[in-house]
Amino acid sequence: MRNSLADVVSAALRVLEAQGLEGCSMRRVAAELGVQPSALYHHVPDKQTLLALMADRIVAGAGAAEGDPRRFCVALRDAMLAVRDGADVVATAAAFRLGASEIEERLAALVGADGARTLLLYTFGHAQSTQTHLQAAALGALAAFAAGPPAGGPAVAAAAGQTATPAAVAEAELEASFGRGLDIILAGLR
């Protein structure tokens, strides 16, 4: 059976989830599909194009929040955080102007080109920072998690409906921090 472009993108996302961005090579994607790496080039000319298609797939659901730039950015961040290294993939593709331009265009219709770029850079950066923090915490690489929750942390977690584990506290605070930053940017745009 011959693979389609959608099959190639799906395989790349499976490799991304299993290996992370650094381990997501054309060779591994080909192995996931059971084909030779050269077979991938019938669908994509290079890894950068595949990265752009992966980014587009990752953020595809963010469009459901049309009309409200705050909800749009929250949905975009959630979509990136739902995929291992998703924020890195989307931010890289956007930085190289390889993909996700439709997202920028839709946001620009709401807040103008400069506002859209500012919101996207903030959303990408915050999502990358959050993803790095959560991955490091999951690996036990953050000493603060061994010491227990920070002062006032359980209240933040409880407000978010989560248990007061250090990881839940951190995740709730990161989400709250993102919302506060969005509010500051949107107030400035108004």
Structure commentary:
By secondary structure, this protein is mainly alpha-helical. The longest helix has 26 residues, at 113-138. It contains eleven helices and no strands. It is flat, with a radius of gyration of 18 Å. Residues 146-154 have low confidence and may be disordered. α1 packs across α2 and α4 crosses α6 (86-95). It has two domains: 1-45, Orthogonal Bundle (Arc Repressor Mutant, subunit A); 59-189, Tetracycline Repressor, domain 2, CATH 1.10.357. Helix content is 71%, strand content 0%. The protein has helices at 5-19, 26-33, 37-40, 47-59, 69-81, 86-95, 101-111, 113-138, 143-146, 153-159, 166-189. Keywords: DNA-binding, Transcription, Transcription regulation. Pfam families: TetR_N. One of its GO terms (molecular function) is DNA-binding transcription factor activity.
